[in-house]
Amino acid sequence: MAISGDLKVFVGTFASHRPPKPPVPVSKIRFGRVLKGASDLRIVQKWLQAESPAGSTVKHSQVCHGMGGNKLSPTVNQDAEGFLLNVVNMNFFDRLSLAWRILFPTAKERNNSNASIAKQRLKMILFSDRCDISDEAKQKIVGNVIEALSEFVEIDSQDKVQLNISTDTDLGTIYSVTVPVRRVRPGYQDSEEDYSGKISNIEYKDTGETSGTVDVTFDFFLPNKK
Amino acid sequence: MSSPFPHLLPSSPLSPSLPLLFLPSKTLSPRHRRRSAVTAALQWNRKPQFAGETPRVVVVTSGKGGVGKTTTTANVGLSLARFGFSVVAIDADAGLRNLDLLLGLENRVNYTAVDVLNGDCRLDQALVRDRRCPSLELLCISKPRSKLPLGFGSKALTWVVDALRSRPAGPPHFVLIDCPAGIDAGFITAIAPANEAVLVTTPDITALRDADRVTGLLECDGIRDIKMIVNRVRTDLIRGEDMMSVLDVQEMLGLALLGVIPEDSEVIKSTNRGYPLVLNKPPTMAGLAFEQAAWRLVEQDTMTAVMVEEEPKKKGFFSFFGG
Questions:
Q1: Subunit contact B244:A115, Cβ cutoff 8 A
Q2: Which pLDDT tens digit goes with each residue over B43-91?
Q3: Are B238 and A115 in contact (CB under 8 A)?
Q4: Is B312 part of the contact surface with chain A (CB cutoff 8 Å)?
Q5: Helices marked H in B135-244 — which ranges?
Q6: With 0-12 CB in 10 A as exposed, 13-18 as middle and 19+ as buried, what is A207?
Q7: What is the DSSP letter of B302?
Q8: What residues of A are in contact with residue B243 (Cβ under 8 Å)?
């Protein structure tokens, strides 16, 4: 069972019904991210009223959570009861890990807070608004790119060249031009005959100035015999 | 920089029964105590230093409506007037008039800028002086009872600002132009005479998108000096990670921050009474924030946002339990 929803726990310590005891202030522990759609919680005062002879502290808690992924829980009050029943049935270590995850949420849980969602959306929107380019400029970009590439490759058909504008979380706005290419022009082709007998990747481990010997590694190309 | 606290000033500086704990501790004979009381009062009444050229024409704009432009204009203008600078606030909305309501001067507006342009009255007749704070004057453009289209363009507003600059009483120190919402003709009219802009925004995503658009338009128009005021900030929501923090807003928009105004119900109350927020004694949170923003506006200063959120808990010894 994984708790992957928004969790807000109000832990209130309530004094007993004896007047001389001063009321203990309600402390609120907030953790996890905020549930979409059920974000305001109320302290249910009549929950879990344990009468003890000392009667000093009674824990009132109300928890709302979403189980498993992004599924939203139906109502707050129903889930409080269901959750606590489930918790009671868990063994000790499960409860301990649940408590740990509640008290110390992971980075992933923190990133799904409303504020960070809003920030992500705003980033996307700002990037796409700021880079609002006119159609005329798009045509010119496509034309220039075709002209620049035509020197090196043969383009399949000029109508199929497309300019796409997209946004990326890390880089921002991405302009991509897709160009279908038929073949490379003869002057720029990478042919095997050029490579035979060619020495490349020369590395000098010892140039021989001090020791008198030269230590060299290099690559020598031999074409496959077909 | 601390803003002045006028309510700490003794009511009559020359009375001998002054509360001595407000004075700096100096051992003086009783004869000199009166004179030092006056100088001490002047020390407490610090004024910000005026930066820039006179007059400073500032347009208060936002793009999205309802974020607090008119409230900001009224309160910042009144704070500036209380510091001692002469301020003219212009309500550049040619159709709907609001700044006079916020300042409580709606009964006293007889002539508007349209009348001045038509030649029906002089400029100083159209300027409404506030009795509570005499250095603030209000100029409205729209005549709500007129059915004809007004046709008040950027040239007209520029003419008005130039007339203010060269009026016989001397140019005002500040001209605050309250811009209408949107980015159409009213906006273009309002930003025409301005040299600087104060962009009012709230930390929600819709206002920020519009603010970004407006920033682009302002820079196109030649206004480079754009500062931001973030209004209606709820620190409880920011701490609960439900609202974007001011740091996030600054990062997204990339503008210098002039002030952060918290959400305050006093704004509504003071609008209803026609008594601007900054005149409240004791000052409210929003009123103090407006005063500090006005101080920074005068000195052409900016502030840096402060992180409200707590640091995320570091993973400790028991991290093998989960998470």
A1: yes
A2: 566 778 888 888 999 999 999 999 999 999 999 999 999 999 999 999 9
A3: yes
A4: yes
A5: 154-165, 185-191, 205-221, 235-239
A6: exposed
A7: -
A8: 114-115, 118
